[in-house]
Amino acid sequence: MNTLRLPLVATLALAAALAAPAALAQSKQFANAPAVAGAFKRPSEAQTPLEYRNDGARHIYAAYGKHIHKGKMPPLLYGVAIIETEIDAQGNVQNVRVVRKPAAAEVEPWAVNMIKAASPFPAPSKMGSVRYTDIWLVDKSGRFQLDTLTEGQR
Question: Can you name the CATH fold of 31-149?
Answer without folding.
Answer: 3.30.1150
